[in-house]
């Protein structure tokens, strides 16, 4: 009798959401000289970011390690927000990067770079236009409205590494949305919601952009990252409110993303103020 894979226990519990094939993903993505060194798929965990950060700090993961979960019970976004979704309804994964050639001051570009890579990969594989909300949200259009379909979280992993986590709602149905402002690739009219080719496309795009950025010493202008991010950023050109640490807020028009990856706001006082961290709210034009 052929041994069963652990994922067989729930393989047919939802025919619209088949499990990922870890062996096929490794064959497609792990190549000599390539970025991806390993691809592991687990059925359920608290947070792929927390798991991969711990492995990196213990010396149990190398650059290019990819950890994918079919379900996360304690997924996290920025500001410790929780991220939950039904099992196998999305792509929930983290990658370990160790950009030794890049000054640490430029590592703040990694979540923006990942956003560009994800948007590029999804456009090719799912046929969905994905816009970027600074600094880390992935937006799709559902019924003529912008909805958040994904997010990115970067965390330091020891002295030399960064773990970048990505969560993307793929087949989430309307009655499964955690909040009305959420969306999914399926609700946005994706031509494909097969997660295997979607994950391959996103990881290949990420390897490509990361390679360009690293070869340029992290210079976002030299590798085309700054220009490409600005072109796909839905925040630019809009009135926004930035909720800053210390219960402070700034309102103004988002006019640029500077060389450090900060969002530049033009305020009513005629001042251009860069925002490096904060929660951005898109405002309706007056």
From TrEMBL:
Its EC number is 6.3.4.15. The keyword Ribonucleoprotein does not apply. Keywords: ATP-binding, Biotin, Ligase, Nucleotide-binding. It comes from the Bacteria. Transmembrane segments: none annotated. PANTHER family: BIOTIN PROTEIN LIGASE, BIOTIN--PROTEIN LIGASE. NCBIfam families: birA_ligase. This is biotin--[biotin carboxyl-carrier protein] ligase. It comes from Streptomyces glaucus.
């Amino acid at each position: 009798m052929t041994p069963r894979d652990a994922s067989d226990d729930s393989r047919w519990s939802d025919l619209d959401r088949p499990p990922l094939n870890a062996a096929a993903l490794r064959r497609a993505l792990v190549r000599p000289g390539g970025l991806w060194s390993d691809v592991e798929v687990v059925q359920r965990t608290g947070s792929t970011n927390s798991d991969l950060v711990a492995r990196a700090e213990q010396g149990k993961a190398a650059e290019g390690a990819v950890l994918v979960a079919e379900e996360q019970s304690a997924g996290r976004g920025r500001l410790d927000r929780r991220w939950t979704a039904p099992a196998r309804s999305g792509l929930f994964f983290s990658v370990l990067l160790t950009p030794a050639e890049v000054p640490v001051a430029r590592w703040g570009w990694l979540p923006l770079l990942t956003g560009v890579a994800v948007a590029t990969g999804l456009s090719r594989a799912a046929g969905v236009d994905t816009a970027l909300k600074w600094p880390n949200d992935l937006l799709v259009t559902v019924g003529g409205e912008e909805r958040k379909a994904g997010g990115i979280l970067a965390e330091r992993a020891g002295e030399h590494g960064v773990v970048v986590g990505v969560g993307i709602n793929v087949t989430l149905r309307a009655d499964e949305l955690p909040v009305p402002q959420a969306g999914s690739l399926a609700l946005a009219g994706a031509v494909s919601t097969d997660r295997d080719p979607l994950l391959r496309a996103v990881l290949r795009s990420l390897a490509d952009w990361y390679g360009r950025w690293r070869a340029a010493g992290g210079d976002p202008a030299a590798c085309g990252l700054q220009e490409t991010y600005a072109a796909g950023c839905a925040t630019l050109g809009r009135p926004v409110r930035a909720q800053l640490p210390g219960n402070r807020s700034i309102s103004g028009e988002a006019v640029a993303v500077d060389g450090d990856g900060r969002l530049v706001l033009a305020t009513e006082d005629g001042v251009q103020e860069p925002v490096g961290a904060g929660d951005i709210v898109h405002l309706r034009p007056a």
